[in-house]
Write a structure and sequence with these properties.
Helices cover about 60% and strands about 0% of the residues. The protein has twelve helices and no strands.
Length: about 200
């Protein structure tokens, strides 16, 4: 099941059983944009996720705009052949330059069918690329493949939102897992609502 407007409505009905999520649905249901980070180019989508790693939301937006300006109209091979210094000039580290180039190199010859692979198999395939970890793979599942039942415990903003809305954190793994599993099969939609909560500083 993929994340689309019809599924979103079903998800809101299901998740409204959770009074905290219902509170967020009542506030934000018309503002959730399931395509806000979508890119039909898989290497570009992953490059954006690498840029987002360990930087603020605002910084990531600025750097992604610079990256787009830098590589627009370039082929994948031309991006790979850009000098490291040229890519670093957008405001990223040497390591992130290496990771971004690793992604474009992977997609030169890839034949993997991401669309029809299971969530677990997508993660296993993507983390073979140096620079792509579990968090990036989970974000790819949500925002590029539109998978409906993903929750990333490695996402700091998401976990902060859970703490603010539920007073639950990683020090309570059993309670946390029970909560997350209660959102299945719509964990991705719960995630979108919780991200919106923290972005807007609006909590239950």
């Amino acid at each position: 099941m993929e994340l689309n407007p019809q599924t979103l409505k079903k998800a809101y009905t299901f998740l409204s059983k959770d009074e905290r999520l219902k509170f967020l649905i009542d506030k934000f249901s018309n503002e959730i944009d399931i395509t806000e980070r979508y890119n039909d180019s898989y290497p570009m989508a992953l490059a954006f996720l690498i840029i987002e790693q360990q930087v603020s939301f605002r910084a990531a937006i600025t750097i992604k705009k610079r990256f787009i300006n830098k590589v627009s109209n370039l082929s994948n091979d031309e991006i790979i052949n850009l000098s490291d210094e040229d890519l670093q000039s957008i405001g990223i580290s040497y390591r992130k330059v290496e990771y971004i180039k690793n992604v474009f190199k992977y997609f030169k010859n890839f034949k993997y069918d991401f669309d029809n692979a299971s969530n677990d198999d997508v993660v296993k395939e993507l983390i073979k690329i140096k620079g792509i970890g579990i968090w990036s793979a989970e974000m790819f599942l949500i925002f590029v493949l539109f998978r409906i039942n993903i929750f990333s415990k490695g996402d700091l903003a998401l976990m902060n939102s859970v703490k603010m809305n539920y007073n639950i954190d990683k020090k309570q793994p059993d309670i946390l897992n029970e909560l997350i599993n209660s959102w299945s099969p719509y964990k991705s939609v719960a995630s979108l609502l919780l991200w919106k909560s923290i972005e807007e500083d609006f909590f239950y």
